[in-house]
Design goal:
Elements lengths: L1 E6 L7 E2 L3 E3 L2 E3 L7 H9 L4 E6 L4 E3 H13 L5 E3 L6 E6 L3 E5 L1 H10 L3 E5 L5 E2 L4 E7 L3 E3 H10 L4 E4 L5 E8 L9 H10 L3 E9 L2 H10 L4 E5 L10 H8 L3 E5 L10 E5 L2 E6 L10 H10 L6 H5 L21
Parallel strand pairs: 15-16, 15-17, 17-20
Antiparallel strand pairs: 1-5, 2-5, 3-4, 6-13, 7-8, 8-12, 9-11, 9-14, 10-12, 18-19, 19-20
């Protein structure tokens, strides 16, 4: 691509680099100049105009953006691709889900050519319908075809999208004298609703290992959430012990995300079990949101996955915390 000021009579087919005001109206930046446009520019007393002139091996910005968007995310069933405009094409969520990114591949795309760019949300970001997952922007008016092809190859299917796999969840709340009661039920139901999951049953039991074990075993749904009246402070505390007594197992107790440290994750007979931290009573973002969204969307969550959440896991302080990080 050639860029710069050229005589009016050599500018036909060039892409206007800067908007120009004329008596007949305004020619906007990005407009492809026709013979009629050139006549108007000349009549206005202009002798030169700054344009981008595509060469045979170039691909225009919109065609390039659309091609790269299709290569990177076109295979993801949960994503739509917007029509390319001014060198930009967006990947947009069709509905609730979690974004899956091949980070190394996307970094490789951004290394191919400075004028070929892609920006995304973070890996495993929970999205709502019409949420912007990624934007592909061709900065210049055109890029070399070889560079575009290299970018499409490097980023092939680098963005995926996992939609919710669970339809319903059970919530078990343990009760203690003077405890929080059903506080938090609304916030948890809202989290599930955002993922397209129904809260089918809320079960209240005493904060005792045997009573909770029985409730876990009898919970009807394939996703079981536990919110304890007293914070779970050890892997042998009431809730993790109850899961094991019911025949389940603990995958991970504790997470390096704050708020959210006191979460535990396990399973029983093929059903996923999440022991929610007390901060889940608030609608504010916490570590439980990261785990819940992945579990709901069928994304495997292992102990190592939770351990990796610590980088970036220092979340915004919430005013409902009984012991804030810093004294005020």
């Amino acid at each position: 691509m050639k860029f710069g000021a050229v005589p009016i009579d050599e500018a036909k087919g060039g892409v206007l680099a800067h908007s120009v005001s004329l008596p007949q109206g305004r020619l906007r930046k990005g407009h492809v100049l026709s013979a009629e446009d050139l006549a108007q520019l000349s009549a206005a007393g202009l002798h030169n105009v700054t344009v981008a002139q595509l060469e045979p091996e170039d691909v225009d910005e919109n065609t390039a953006a659309a091609a790269l968007a299709d290569a990177i995310g076109g295979q993801a069933a949960g994503l739509n691709i917007s029509n390319a405009f001014t060198g930009r094409a967006n990947l947009i969520a069709k509905g609730p889900g979690v974004v899956m990114l091949d980070v190394a591949a996307l970094e490789a795309v951004n290394l191919v050519h400075p004028m070929i760019t892609i920006a995304t949300v973070p890996p495993h970001q929970q999205m709502a319908k019409r949420g912007l997952v990624a934007t592909i922007k061709i900065i210049s008016y055109a890029v070399p075809r070889a560079a575009l092809e290299a970018a499409c190859t490097a980023g092939a299917a680098a963005i995926g999208y996992e939609k919710p796999q669970h339809q319903a969840a059970s919530l078990i709340i343990t009760e203690i004298s003077g405890g929080a009661g059903d506080k938090g039920q609304t916030a948890i139901a809202g989290r599930l609703e955002a993922l397209g999951v129904a809260l089918s049953e809320v079960i209240f039991v005493p904060h005792e290992t045997q009573a909770l074990a029985q409730a876990i075993a009898q919970a009807p749904d394939d996703l079981v959430l536990i919110l304890t009246g007293s914070a779970t402070s050890d892997i042998d505390d009431v809730a993790p012990a109850a899961l094991r007594r019911a025949g389940g197992r603990i995958e991970r107790f504790g997470m390096p995300v704050d708020p959210g440290n006191l979460l535990f994750l396990g399973d029983i007979a093929g059903r996923m079990v999440i022991g929610l931290p007390g901060c889940a009573r608030s609608p504010a973002l916490n570590g439980a949101d990261w785990v819940l969204s992945r579990v709901v969307c069928g994304v495997p969550v292992r102990s190592a996955d939770i351990a990796a959440m610590g980088v970036g896991g220092l979340l915004k302080e919430i005013p409902t915390r009984p012991q804030p990080r810093q004294r005020r």
